[in-house]
From TrEMBL, chain A:
The chain crosses the membrane at residues 6-36, 71-90, 97-116, 144-162, 187-208, 220-239, 248-269, 275-292. It comes from Aminobacter aganoensis. Pfam families: BPD_transp_2. This is Putative ABC transport system permease protein. PANTHER family: ABC TRANSPORTER PERMEASE PROTEIN YPHD-RELATED-RELATED (PTHR32196), BRANCHED-CHAIN AMINO ACID TRANSPORT SYSTEM, PERMEASE PROTEIN (PTHR32196:SF69). One of its GO terms (cellular component) is plasma membrane. Keywords: Cell membrane, Membrane, Transmembrane, Transmembrane helix. The keyword Isomerase does not apply. GO terms for molecular function: transmembrane transporter activity. Its main location: membrane. It is found in: Cell membrane. It is a multi-pass membrane protein.
UniProtKB/TrEMBL annotation, chain B:
Pfam families: ABC_tran. This is Putative ABC transport system ATP-binding protein. Residues 2-249 form the ABC transporter domain. InterPro entries: AAA+_ATPase (IPR003593), ABC_transporter-like_ATP-bd (IPR003439), ABC_transpr_LolD-like (IPR015854), P-loop_NTPase (IPR027417). Keywords: ATP-binding, Nucleotide-binding. The keyword Nucleotide-binding applies. GO terms for molecular function: ATP binding; ATP hydrolysis activity; transmembrane transporter activity. One of its GO terms (cellular component) is plasma membrane. Transmembrane segments: none annotated. It comes from Aminobacter aganoensis. It comes from the Bacteria.
Amino acid sequence: MDLIQTIFWSFVALIPVTLAQSLILAFVVLGIMIPFRTLNFPDLTSEGAFPLGGCVCGVLLAAGASPLTAIAIAIIAGFLAGCCTAFIHLRFRIHTLLAGILMMTMLYSINLRIMGKSNLSVFGAPTVFDWAPFVQPGFPASKIIIAGVIGAVVFILLNMFFKTEKGTAIRAVGANPDMAEAQGINVWVATIGGVGLASAFSATGGALMVQSQGFADVNMGLGILINGLAALMIGEAIVGKQTVLRQLAAPFVGAVVYYQLVSFCLAAGMPPPDLKLATGLFVLAMLALPSLKRSRGPAPARETVRE
Amino acid sequence: MLEIRSARKVFYKGQPDEKVALDGLDLKLNTGEFGVVIGSNGAGKSSMLNAISGALVLDSGQIVINGDDVTEMPVHKRAMRLARVFQDPMKGTAASMTVAENMLLAELRSKKRSLRQGLNARRLADYRERLALLGLGLENRLDTRVELLSGGQRQSLSLIMAVGGEPELLLLDEHTAALDPRTADIVMQATVRAVDALKLTTLMVTHNMQHAVDFGHSVIMLDAGKLRLEITGDEKAKVTVPDLIGHFAVKTDRMLLAS
């Protein structure tokens, strides 16, 4: 009984910190969801774009730039990285996954070049979290407010965008590229723009993370992809993905729930090194579920992606 | 008006399995004319449609639509001028999107896409009205995802989408071949109604000789990548199914001799 109480209270004590972290990482989950679900383009760039955003932001903060400028330039850097991945795929007909692996590998060197060393402390530099109203800077509440507000704005804007004429066209490219082309949609522009936008969100997550934790590390992206994928799967299991609204809500809901689950597992005494194995098994189970269900009853639509 | 000028396309050039798909094909289709294309498998029918739509890049020759040379235009640019219904109902629609969203994509085919909201009340009413013409009940399923529709319903939707923006040229690629006879009839009747009402310049590929006899202003027969036969005017009005099959038979005999 005592043990359960201890676990419970240590978990509860971690809730605000974890919530702040998950709202920041929700941008990465969004950056994974957009190519994967709306463009049917499984994109691995986020593993490199997340630290890219962090490194760019860190260097700029260390040079005395304002936190907003640092985020804006990190977003541009992320956008360009995503554009490169899509271009590699389209121009050289390289498989989407391989294009992503190439890009994230190359980004590792680029990130090191940008920072000049493997990690950089920006502790004490001004951050966007200092601007949170009513709360003391530095506490989780300020991060929850700022990251939550930015997330809400992005969510509303994206929900509007995907229902515009241009946004519908981008979704059509993911649903059926040949049909989209026959309906006069430029598949190249839509794919490059869409994957670029997604990586820009991953970079946003990296930049916010650096401002939140006070340092940038070239290895900060390690395993972010599998975490993000797990969060996306949870989000889709909870809110579904039938409509644009639900599909967009899934990354945010999923990130919040997933990181609380992780926090709970750690509080319950799971050794941290086992975390990646557990996450991997979870994602595997979620992806395998449709084919397990198929042995009973009619075949569901298989997961197909652009190659 | 559609003109194909000495179009040539060779697949696997210089290899043992070299295949001449289009061998200096010349074709002219007047504005408002409904041409029916027949020919055996491998005669070049699909290659011709792909060359017109831009999915196939010609080795030489030209494609001219209403006086403009579109030979160098990519598929999405040509889409401003032409619409196409494929044989496979899956190909012409976006399965994971709703009926209304598919209609919207088709409506915007020849327009500039803006950042305004796509589906509005005016558009939805318009789509409902146009889909009601089919008599399949699609007008009440605007929010249904297309993957939940039957093949016939999807193909009917493809047709309505294609004739929507009054394209300069309509390409029908065996668009009733994958459907059951009753549905094929519904789709065919809807096709003829739309083509007649809008006076669309149309090119329809079919293996159904009865369709070739019943519909269209002219019958165009392809053979080995060339125009073999063109039946127009009064002659077309009098042509019968055995006549058309006769032309196939001659070709088959020659093929036997050649092989």
